[in-house]
Amino acid sequence: MKTFALLVHPNNIQQIRDFWPITRIMPDFLIKSCLKVLPPFKVHMRSSQGKEIQGYLITCPLLPKQIAELGQDFVLNKIISAGQIAERLNASILGLVGFSSTAMDKEREITKNLKIPVTCGSALTAWSVFEAIYRMAKSKNIDLKESTLAVIRASDTVGSLCARKLSEYVKKIIITDRHGDKLARLKEAIQQLSPIEITIEDDIHKAAKNADIVIITEIPEGLLDINEFKPNAIVCDLSGSKNMNRKVKQSHKAHFIKGGLIKLPYPTNIVTASIAEVILLTFAERFVSYSLGENINLDKLEEIANLAVKHGFEVWVPEAPVI
């Protein structure tokens, strides 16, 4: 049976309780202690075609704030250690969940130190964002060709892929991030694909106010206020901001999408696209470093979308269901 491995870390204590029911009766300090000694555990999956695979979850017992404070070299060592564990478990591929920024900048070090391929889920995540926006626009009668798209943190791998893919469909693009040099390269790459107007904006508030469609790949909690979005704007949030989610749903002004979610065929669970991608690649026996680094070809979005349909994976957008 083909085998994958996933390196995961909890976003918060509540997420651990949601995923691991027994921890709901445990105090926070005990949960953190358990994570430190939790061995990899096995899961089984089946595609819509009846093909079966198995996987191992390898836990990095750190919350996002701790990972950010400990730095890239520390995280890189965690990735390499997880890869070596995956190799001993005879996994054919390692998926990274929540480590994309390190993987984007440390691609060479990762591939040099591991024998198995590594993927971050960026291709399937970007495709899921594209399909979610396309479906939402269609359901709300919003004309993409007359719309302005803003991508917050556009130099992120997923942000870059989304901006490049949607450049074929929208009228104008606003890109913003803290890395000006990367934005300049992204602007040039988009203009090679499509001769549309592209603006590099330093102020994310201006970017949000002037856009009909907003993609947020990462944002500090509370930095953007819901009132900054246009009425009827489509807001696709990948940042996991609970504050943003709550405010958008209360406002009834913008169309909120919790982006990057995939419905698996069996067991029927909703997971992030970064988890789903490594599972999908294992079903397809595509054991390559598919979404590693920042220079990912757009053709991979179409390929991963076709594989998703073949194996019964569905982009999950309950606000705009497939018709």
What can be said about this structure in brief?
By secondary structure, the protein is of the alpha/beta class. The protein has 13 helices and 14 strands. Helix 8 links the parallel strand 6 and strand 7.
Give a written overview of the molecule.
This protein folds into two domains: 3-121 and 273-297, Rossmann fold (3-Layer(aba) Sandwich), CATH 3.40.50; 123-261, 3-Layer(aba) Sandwich (Rossmann fold), CATH 3.40.50.720. Helices cover 42% and strands 19% of the residues. It has helices at 13-19, 28-37, 64-70, 72-88, 100-105, 107-113, 122-139, 157-166, 180-193, 204-209, 242-251, 273-284, 299-310; strands at 3-8, 41-46, 52-59, 93-96, 118-119, 148-152, 172-176, 197-200, 213-216, 234-237, 255-258, 261-263, 270-272, 314-315. Strands 8-7-6-9-10-11 form a six-stranded parallel beta sheet, sandwiched between helices. β10 (234-237), α11 (242-251) and β11 form a beta-alpha-beta unit. It is globular and about 50 Å long. The mean pLDDT is 85.
Give me the secondary-structure topology.
Blueprint: E1 3-8, H1 13-19, H2 28-37, E2 41-46, E3 52-59, H3 64-70, H4 72-88, E4 93-96, H5 100-105, H6 107-113, E5 118-119, H7 122-139, E6 148-152, H8 157-166, E7 172-176, H9 180-193, E8 197-200, H10 204-209, E9 213-216, E10 234-237, H11 242-251, E11 255-258, E12 261-263, E13 270-272, H12 273-284, H13 299-310, E14 314-315
Helix pairs in contact: 7-8, 7-12, 7-13
